[in-house]
Structure formats: C-alpha cells, structure tokens
Amino acid sequence: MATSTYLSNPTVTVNSVALTGFSTAATLTRTNTAQDTTVFGNTARVYSATIEDNELTVSLYMTYAASETYATLATLVGTATTVVVKPTSAATSATNPGFTLTNTYLESLPVINANLGEISSIDITFKGGTYTAATS
Amino acid sequence: MSKYTIVSELVGTPGEEFVPDEGINVDALIWGGFIKSDNKALKSAKTEPTEENQ
Question: Which of A1, A16, A41, A134 could anchor a disulfide with A98, C-beta 3.0 to 4.6 Å?
Fold first, then answer.
C-alpha cells in the first residue's frame, strides 16, 4: 500500500484569475517530444529529446455571470497566457509545487455546451508554453 | 508604466494594485472586469480661437 496518497483538490489559475471554484478536473502534462535516433548497430530503439510540447486540460463549469468563467476565457481564444496549477491551496513549496505554463496558447473555447437538465460544463486545453515548477 | 487596480477577488484583494506577471493578458482581465486601468485619459490640448480656425 502506498505510504502517501493525494486526494485531488488542486488550485487552477488562468491568466491570474482563480478558477478553482469552477473547476472539476485538471491535467497538466509535460511532454518532451522524442526523436528516434536509432542507428545501425543498436539493438534497441534510441530516442533523444527534441522540443517540449506541454499541455493543460481543464474541466470547469461554464458561467456567464460578471467576472466568472466566460469573462475569463472569452478574449483569451487565439492568444497566449499563463496558467498555474498547484496540488493544494497551501503555500507554494517543494511539497506543493506551482506548475506553470507561460505563454501557453488557448486554441478554442466551447462558448456554450448545454444539455437538458444538466449544469453546463466545458473542457478547455492550453497548448504549448514554457513549463516551470515553482517551489517557493 | 501602466497601473492597474484589482476589482475581482478572483484576482486578488479588491482595491490593491495589480502587477501582472510574465505572460498575463491584461486586456483580457480589463475586458472581463477583473481589474481596471488607472491610466487617465490624456486631456486634449486647448486651442485658443483665432481668426484662422473660427
């Protein structure tokens, strides 16, 4: 059994706006695209790092009230911004790092996603950007 | 340099100065009503009426 587990309860900040209270899921994936550099004589595939291709996907409730979800995201479509996700709301530290994507691009925004009798929620994806993990 | 004031508590403490971090889209924050710009519009220069522009 694991000696330590983590009950999901992250904070989500998009373009300096705290969207934690609207978010239900967040996945930030740090990717460094591999380039196959296998050559004759190798007996196993060899890969080398090329360029980072990071991504943050967030699920959140859609609201159109003043200064909430839509107001945060509407004018970010087609632009780059900064997003921060932390495991908990505690102060940033080595055990609660602030995972940040700087200059990450929001390609699209579902401006409405409505189903009869359901609370509207949307999924958005920030593509690219420089990854850092702040510990202080 | 432009100065901004926080309006929404989702950005910080309302009334305090907002200092954007690297990569923050300030125009989007103003559009969404999260902050406001403290820059006052420049007054246009007054022109005294002359015979030529009357």
Answer: A134
Give helix then strand counts, H and E, for chain B.
1, 3
Contact flag B28-A18 (C-beta cutoff 8 Å): no
| Residue-range domains of chain A with CATH | 11-134 (2.40.30)
Query: A15 Cβ partners below 8 Å, 6+ apart?
Result: A72, A76, A81, A82, A83, B24, B25, B28, B29
Mean pLDDT of A53-63: 98
ipTM of the complex: 0.87
Q: Where are the domains of chain B?
A: 4-37
Contact A17, B8 (CB under 8 A): yes
Chain B residues whose CB is inside 8 A of the A80 CB are 23, 25
Residue B28 C-alpha, separation from nearest chain A C-alpha, in angstroms = 6
A127, exposed or middle or buried, with CB in 10 Å at 0-12, 13-18, 19+?
Answer: middle
Q: What is the pTM of this model?
A: 0.88
